[in-house]
């Protein structure tokens, strides 16, 4: 069984031997057994809190490279007549701690009929679709931008009082 545990950087141009097609809920697991596009079994081990994003590539002890692909899954595409209404929808989704993908003029959420009714009540057009789901990582984890000194790429700096210190961390 192939083992994957390391994300490759963008400057590593080795070709992928297969694809690992997973829905979002599987791409956020830190331990996973799955099947590659070529039929081979694979074990994925990542640091807790890691999300595998569409297009990323991983490798393991044997050096083989696998490309991550976001699977199509049941979602709602949320569109509005104007930016203000879309912003209101995003606010109300965030207020319910709902994961949402933010795009140019749209939001995408997992299929949920209660949320659909709420969004339609806010005058949004909600269309059922099957699409890859890539929600925002959140303000304090896993995105682009600031580094925390431990190899993590945070979307925003974490206030010192919120940092978690583990026994093995340097002082």
From TrEMBL:
It holds the Pfam family UreE_C. Keywords: Chaperone, Cytoplasm, Nickel. InterPro entries: UreE (IPR012406), UreE_C_dom (IPR007864), UreE_N (IPR004029), UreE_N_sf (IPR036118). It is found in: Cytoplasm. Residues 1-66 form the UreE urease accessory N-terminal domain. Involved in urease metallocenter assembly. Binds nickel. Probably functions as a nickel donor during metallocenter assembly. Belongs to the UreE family. This is Urease accessory protein UreE. It comes from Janthinobacterium kumbetense.
């Amino acid at each position: 069984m192939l083992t994957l545990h390391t994300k490759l950087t963008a400057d590593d141009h080795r070709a992928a031997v297969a694809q690992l097609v997973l829905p979002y809920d599987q791409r956020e697991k830190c331990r996973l057994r799955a099947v590659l596009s070529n039929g081979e079994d694979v074990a994925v081990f990542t640091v807790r809190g890691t999300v595998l994003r569409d297009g990323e590539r991983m490798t393991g002890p044997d050096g083989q490279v696998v490309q991550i692909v976001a699977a199509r899954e049941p979602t709602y595409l949320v569109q509005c007549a104007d930016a203000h209404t879309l912003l209101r929808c995003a606010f109300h989704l965030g207020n319910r701690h709902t994961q949402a993908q933010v795009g140019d003029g749209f939001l995408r959420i997992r299929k949920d009929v209660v949320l659909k009714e709420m969004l339609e009540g806010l005058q949004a057009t909600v269309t059922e679709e099957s699409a890859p789901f890539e929600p925002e990582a959140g303000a304090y984890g896993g995105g682009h931008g600031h580094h925390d000194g431990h190899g993590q790429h945070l979307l925003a700096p974490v206030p010192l009082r919120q940092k978690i210190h583990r026994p093995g961390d340097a002082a």
